[in-house]
Specification:
It is elongated and about 70 Å long. Helix content is about 35%, strand content about 30%. The protein is an alpha/beta fold. It has helices at about 1-35, 100-115, 180-200, and strands at about 35-40, 60-70, 75-85, 85-95, 120, 135-145, 150-160, 165-175. Strands 1, 2, 3, 4, 5, 6, 7 and 8 form an 8-stranded mixed beta sheet that branches. A hairpin with a 2-residue loop joins strand 3 and strand 4 (about 85-95). The longest helix is centred in the N-terminal third of the chain and has 32 residues, at about 1-35.
Length: about 210
Amino acid sequence: MKFGVDCAMKCKSVFSFGIVILTLLLSGCMRDSKSVQFYMLNADSGVAGTVRVPASAQSPVIGLGPIRIPEYLNRPQMIVAISDNQYQLAEDHRWAERLDQNISLALFKALPSQLGTDRIVRYPWPQRQVVDYQVGIDILEFNVDASGQSRLIAQWFIKRKDKPTIDKRSVYQFPASTTDHAVMVKAQSQCLTKLDRKFQKPCGSL
């Protein structure tokens, strides 16, 4: 009798263990089968009107970079700041390329229409390349917070040979979302657009 009870208990335990393993496997398969969404930023979003400056072969060369971002942001997953000291990674919503490279590319693509010249090179440029203006950016904060606001804080400089360096900090904020990642990317792109236009006036005398 005791042998039968022990056997039944063992069978029940094995069955329960099998159910747990099967559940884990199924949940893993379901997660793996969920499609991952990829996103790219741009720097010409949501701002109308562009001032064009006549370009020529003699126009100064603008060097864009270096562009630095915090290491915690330089990862594939998109990030939401759920508190001042806590961040949530979105495994199913990712950047299509490294975030620092995406920001650099977005600004590089937008600057010619802002400045009216395509004589722009990205950091690091060849050692023999002559750069008349250098635009460097140190991004201090660039994410969506718990209230659904996209926030960009950037320390930037514009340096020209034999002239004082312009060194400023800019803060931009746009309504976004804490759940809709496409809306998040749009709001973050709007922040980049505002930063991009910040260089228009200092470089407007090209």
